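A reminder from the course coordinator: this example appears on the midterm review sheet, so study it carefully.

Given structure:
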């Protein structure tokens, strides 16, 4: 068997797909998988992935086989299986791979292919999106040691992984930029240059020199794809690069291939122009000349009405609604509605219509209402209805339309569509979030019925590992007294990651006014000690102090306990820097807190501020002596 699998491995490396499949079939390999050892298994999985033979069914079979065979795999086998299964969506497989990397880290570092393996490990670890995982520091160290031997492909994988997870490390971005200078910015391919600026902008990193060179280089590239241009435009706007020549060139490049743009490209481009306050009429006029052409429908993939609405919203935000440009869009909106040319079922941005109704009330009429109701009634597919329902409920909540009293005309059809949806069948996290906010709108009309859906055990189990979803539900349900089933489950919530755990209850207590049991609060306070020092941590600490002032009977003791954590953080942070005035730093922090306290405490509590100050002074003197 070993000889056969070794031959399959060689055929895969040479790209000989037909010979590979013929040998697998003739020898009945797929019926003998349970007899393979770790080396044979990893080589066979590699072969299927290398030759693009990994169907969904085959992938699932190999994933289960990997999980069943973990005990007989060595570090080389894990790495090879990791490469072959790198795109797996199976959480158990992802966790097993990352666990094997943790356990075998020293061996992996000394493997012959460590520089390539480090990219693979970064890619797989990025699936967890856990910036606190110590593996990111280990990856950073190995990258620094092997930087001069890294190829560009592996570098881009590592860059992608760090931009996706965003671990709290500035040094890795310095190392990544150093690699770019070593290779030469212009020596990267066009696509990689685009991804570099996008990744650095995503985390707000990059030296002044990096962005100066990028500004000169990117605007001179020859682009084939509209998403490349829109990614660049988004990145430079995110970093507030307001170079007029750059913007004129990039917009001109985008307009040259405007027939290929998607709604995402239009959103990125117009968002960027809004972000850098680009009110140059010539630029917008060029965009609109393409947009309002009677003979051209921009992109077939997205709804043209959405595109017009998006551009109109940007002009509104730039206070350009009095310009002829906005008027031309207004006319096109009116004409499309009158001619019944709007495909409502695929709309994403209907709520932007409010900026046009604000200028011309006649846009809202019975014909528009009936078109929307008909579209919702005819389409029962959650995919299309979900987007339309989400944007419609946002539109109905806009103050511009309040005087029209539209809610009474739409609430029944919205309720019918919403209750027909099966949340458990919705796969996308974004779509799940839309479902919650449509439900939030309906709560004001159908509280009991909608609450039973949003507080169900099935929904809780589906979202309990998604911190964003939980925080959204907290915000929505905290306004309703009958949402106890959800909060009773949430009170028992546990998560081993301190930042996730604290973030959740920080939202519960301070943003949405829902209180937690005292024992849970104490656990949260203790968990602060295990979070690295960040601005977020300081903000959470200060919010907990606010909570103590309002809820706790032992104000001084609780405040001091939190301040002790802050003091130790500062001592650790500045331990090796003798020039830092530790007392000044701490006093500045106390002064900041004092301003926050003044809005929340009455005169009788002023005494405790002095006690806190005194306590810190004593701690400073004691630590200074030590």
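Designed residues:
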């Amino acid at each position: 068997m070993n000889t056969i699998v070794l031959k399959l491995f060689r055929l895969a490396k040479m790209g000989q797909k037909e010979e590979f499949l013929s040998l697998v079939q003739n020898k009945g390999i797929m019926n003998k998988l349970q007899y393979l050892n770790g080396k044979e298994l990893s080589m066979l999985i590699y072969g299927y992935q290398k030759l693009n033979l990994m169907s969904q069914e085959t992938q699932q079979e190999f994933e289960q086989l990997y999980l069943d065979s973990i005990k007989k795999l060595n570090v080389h086998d894990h790495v090879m299986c990791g490469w072959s299964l790198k795109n797996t969506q199976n959480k158990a497989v992802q966790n097993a791979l990352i666990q094997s990397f943790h356990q075998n880290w020293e061996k992996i570092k000394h493997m012959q292919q460590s520089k390539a393996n480090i990219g693979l490990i970064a890619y797989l670890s990025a699936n967890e999106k856990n910036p606190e995982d110590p593996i990111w520091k280990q990856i950073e160290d190995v990258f620094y040691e092997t930087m001069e031997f890294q190829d560009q492909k592996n570098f881009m994988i590592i860059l992608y992984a760090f931009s996706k997870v965003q671990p709290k490390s500035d040094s890795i971005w310095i190392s990544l930029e150093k690699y770019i200078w070593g290779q030469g910015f212009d020596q990267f391919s066009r696509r990689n240059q685009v991804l570099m600026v996008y990744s650095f902008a995503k985390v707000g990193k990059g030296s002044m020199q990096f962005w100066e060179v990028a500004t000169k280089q990117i605007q001179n590239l020859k682009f084939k794809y509209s998403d490349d241009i829109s990614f660049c435009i988004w990145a430079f706007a995110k970093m507030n690069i307001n170079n007029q020549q750059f913007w004129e060139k990039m917009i001109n490049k985008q307009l040259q291939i405007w027939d290929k743009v998607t709604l995402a490209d239009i959103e990125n481009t117009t968002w960027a122009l809004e972000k850098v306050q680009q009110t140059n009429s010539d630029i917008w006029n060029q965009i609109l000349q393409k947009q309002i052409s009677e003979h051209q429908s921009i992109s077939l993939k997205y709804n043209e009405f959405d595109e017009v609405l998006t551009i109109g919203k940007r002009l509104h935000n730039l206070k350009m609604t009095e310009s002829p440009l906005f008027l031309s869009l207004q006319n096109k909106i009116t004409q499309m509605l009158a001619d019944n040319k709007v495909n409502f079922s695929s709309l994403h941005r209907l709520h932007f219509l409010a900026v046009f109704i604000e200028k011309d009330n006649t846009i809202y009429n019975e014909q528009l209402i009936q078109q929307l109701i008909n579209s919702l009634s005819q389409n029962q597919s959650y995919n299309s209805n979900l987007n339309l329902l989400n944007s419609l409920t946002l539109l109905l909540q806009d103050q511009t339309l309040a005087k029209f009293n539209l809610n009474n005309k739409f609430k029944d059809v919205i309720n019918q569509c919403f209750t027909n949806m099966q949340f458990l069948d919705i796969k996308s996290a974004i779509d799940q979030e839309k479902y919650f906010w449509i439900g939030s709108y309906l709560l004001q009309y159908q509280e009991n019925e909608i609450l039973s859906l949003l507080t169900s055990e099935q929904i809780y189990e589906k979202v309990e590992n998604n911190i964003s979803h939980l925080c959204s539900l907290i915000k929505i349900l905290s306004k309703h007294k009958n949402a106890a089933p959800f909060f009773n489950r949430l009170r028992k919530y546990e998560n081993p990651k301190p930042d996730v755990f604290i973030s959740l209850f920080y939202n519960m207590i301070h943003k949405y006014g829902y209180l937690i049991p005292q024992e849970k609060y104490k656990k949260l306070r203790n968990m602060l000690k295990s979070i690295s020092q960040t601005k977020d941590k300081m903000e959470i600490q200060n919010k907990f102090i606010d909570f103590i002032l309002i809820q706790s009977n032992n104000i001084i003791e609780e405040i001091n306990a939190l301040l002790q954590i802050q003091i130790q953080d500062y001592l650790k942070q500045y331990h090796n820097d003798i020039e830092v005035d530790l007392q000044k730093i701490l006093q500045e922090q106390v002064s900041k807190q004092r301003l926050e306290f003044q809005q929340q405490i009455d005169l009788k509590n002023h005494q405790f501020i002095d006690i806190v100050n005194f306590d810190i002074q004593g701690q400073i003197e004691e630590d200074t002596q030590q």
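Confidence is low (pLDDT under 50) at residues 292-301, 548-552, 574-583, 594-626. The longest helix spans residues 606-625.
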